[in-house]
Amino acid sequence: MAALAATPLRVCADPNNLPYSNRQQQGFENKIVELIARDMGTHATYYWYPQRGSFFKQTLGSGVCDLVMSVPSTMPSLAVTQPYYRSSYVFISRRDRNLHIQSIEDPQLRKLKIGVHVLGDEDASLPPVRALIRHGLVRNLVGFSIFGTLDETNPPADLIKAVEDRKVDVAVAWGPLAGYFSRHSSVPLVVVPIPDDPANPELPFQFSIAIGVREKDRALQQTLNTELIRLHPEIQRILRTYGIPAMTLPSEAARSMEN
Amino acid sequence: MKQINPVLCRHSVLAIVAVASGLVLGQNKAGSGATTDIPGAQPNIHLVAPVADGQWTMPAGDYGNTRYSPLDQINTTNIHNLHVVGEVSTGVLHGHEGSPLVVGDTLYVVTPFPDKLMAIDLTKPGLPVKWTFNPNPDNRAVGVACCDVVNRGASYADGNIIYNTLDDHTVAVDANTGKLAWETQVGDVSKGETMTMAPVVVNNIVLVGNSGGELGVRGKLVALDAHSGKILWTAYSTGPDSDVRIGPDFHPYYAKDRGTDLGVSTWNPDQWKMGGGTVWGWISYDPELNLIYYGTGNPGVWNADLRPGDNKWSVTIWARNPETGMAKWAYQIEPHDGFDYDEIMENVLVDMPWHGQMRKLLIHPGRTGFVFVLDRETGELLSAQTFEPVTWAKGFDLKTGKVEINPDKQTHYGQTTRDICPSSTGAKEFVPSSFSPKTGYLYIPAHNTCMDFEGEQVNYIAGTPYIGARVRMYPGPGGYQGEFIAWDVATEKKVWSIKDGSFPIYSGVLTTGGDVAFYGTMDGWFRAVDDRTGKILWQFKTASGIVGNPMTFVGPDGKQYVAIYSGIGGWMGAVALPWISTDDPYSGLGTVGAMRGIKAATTPGSMLYVFSE
């Protein structure tokens, strides 16, 4: 532990990706890293790189930094810590629209413009978006690039802004983005977790989130696990401060059942 | 009289004669170093524009994109004497695509990012660098470029060397002084837009296009004034007809390509704004018809489920008027592409007999695995024959122009699709073929790589977890991965080929009046081949893998030279670069599975080689 304590935590992070991180270290991941580093008796250094297609290759892969906050706990090709929060894809709409959309199967959706994030060259599908397509709603979708432009502050916020500005009726977004940006909205917004879709049980809408390290860095993984357990209450407090909609982690559920 | 130190010369007398007569180049040719007079050309084969005959002033050497030079000092009888006479390092260890230019007695090299322009003196011993121009591009461009930080070359016009920088500027640099003449910002790197293609200058109009379809960039071709750099017009690849520059003169040959505002109506609402169709390949020009030709890239976003419809005008060949940018015709090769089949490949322009009748042909060896032959006046599809194993489609209907898709190979999320051929890297990449009017053959640098679109796993980007399909590429059927093909245009058939078991052929091709075809391999061999038989006559192992295009010129001494870059990189070649791990077959956008051996076969390089006999 002493040897590790002497070494700064080398974090790979996006310099412009609130609520997670930014260069001014105002994101909740910055705060959690700071908390962990302080507890370990060291400090954090950052390698900033925009989270685009080559992010993992250019960061963890090239060895210039050692950990990535906020990766899904089931992500392959990485070693991950135990999850430290769990969130969900959500519907976001203006409160004054009174939509009360309950699920992917809600018939209202057929008449609405639904804003979604699109990921460019990530040959990718956001699970609820794929479920919407399977329910025949592809013509209702309006795509917003999650990458935006490099000069723009908080590119993923464009989607939430489109809800505010009535450019779309409802948006589907990952909980942390939706929770944080809806709190900064000029009009009241409603954020509702999307329940699992019985028609598409293989599409998860909730993900447990962990810290990712290189597969060979098992010592760092262990150290971080210890810290995450010890700092759990403080981490949850930080998440609440940022408006992150957090679900019960499976591990927490299991623990409370044991109790 | 200017004093020339005859370095590159054994026949210094010739050089002195050349200088005394005021001709630095091609002793018995016009000073432009270009000609339409092709000795030995097959009867009835007519090239539409002068070919490079001493100088090399544009990316392909000629507007018709034949990459043929009638120079014949280096030929089948003396090729065994070919040897290195000069080497220059650019100092940049990234993919060296494209080729140098030669104008007068200077050779010009555009390096990979940071896109420096080096002027190399051909008159002095050791090929010294006269000057280097540094455009100081925005470093952020490196982070958004998809497939290595490459540059595919320059054009010479109006006393300037004109090229694009990765951060979306077109620059014109005085060919004598190395001073910036003008600079125009054409795109926005912050949106994920980059520029890698080589400009072509037609009637004092500079034509450039963008890259970055992967990041939801909207593809476009932009015309700039060659004297001032002022933007004259922009023709987008998606959007309303006014943006695409479609007007009353637009007459597509096929009904499938007719209609109003198809660049909007063939997309989900507003999705055309990030619809791809970028223009990062080669541009051809027919001076008689006064039409430019180019192809557009894949539609964005990659997930095809999100963009139902034909997604016009991605994966399309265009004919446009260079002065106005207005479209004459368009032919969409593949609607609703789901395989990343950019069709930005070269369009080779040749007039020749076709089934008994003289036709103005456009020959397009495609990423999709077909050699497309079109009538370039009308856009009619005359032929589409496969040159490598193809499973994604069964063929093309020449009556309707439509592709017959193989439904078994369509990809859908949630299911695995195996043996899609070719893979996303295509049966051929952007690396350009060459056409010899002496043989009537098109020499195609080809790949035989297939892919599985398989499984799904959780992934994460920009703060968002998602489910991603995995793409794995591997050598296609037949036990080879690269193939250098001689394709008889008239009979629509392969005549001979040279197979490469290990790697795709990822270099351009040069053919010459000396009956020799030149190309390079990804493990670094530079080869000269008998253009009629396919016999390898000569080869030389360069320091690194070859992903550039060979070119030829006449030096100040009156001798013929051949030049090639040696520096592995690019999409597939980047697997050789040290920061790409070969442990994961799905990395490098899936190419690692096909390129695993490249690290052992070559190492990064930054060389220009010049050869003579």
Defining key terms:
heterodimer, A: about 260 residues, alpha/beta, 2 domains, 8-stranded mixed sheet, about 30% helix, globular, B: about 625 residues, 5-stranded mixed sheet, about 35% strand
Strand-helix topology:
The complex is a heterodimer of chains A (about 260) and B (about 625).
Chain A lengths: L1 H4 L3 E5 L2 E2 L3 E2 L5 H12 L4 E5 L6 H4 L8 E6 L6 E2 L4 E10 L19 E5 L5 E2 L1 H8 L6 E5 L11 H8 L5 E5 H9 L5 E5 L12 E8 L4 H13 L1 H10 L8 H9 L1
Parallel strand pairs in A: 1-4, 8-10, 8-11
Antiparallel strand pairs in A: 2-3, 5-13, 6-13, 7-11, 7-12, 7-13
Chain B lengths: L11 H9 L13 E2 L10 E2 L3 E2 L15 E2 L13 E7 L11 E3 L2 E5 L6 E5 L7 E5 L6 H5 L9 E4 L2 E5 L4 E6 L5 E6 L14 E3 L2 E5 L10 E6 L5 E6 L4 H4 L17 H4 L18 E3 L4 E5 L20 E5 L6 E6 L15 E7 L2 E9 L4 E6 L5 E6 L6 E4 L6 E3 L11 E4 L13 E3 L4 E7 L1 E13 L2 E12 L6 E7 L4 E8 L9 E3 L3 E5 L4 E6 L5 E6 L9 E4 L5 E7 L3 H4 L18 H4 L2 H4 L5 E6 L1
Parallel strand pairs in B: 4-35
Antiparallel strand pairs in B: 1-3, 2-22, 5-41, 6-7, 7-8, 8-9, 10-11, 11-12, 12-13, 14-15, 15-16, 16-17, 18-19, 19-20, 20-21, 22-23, 23-24, 24-25, 26-27, 28-31, 29-30, 30-33, 31-32, 33-34, 35-36, 36-37, 37-38, 39-40, 40-41
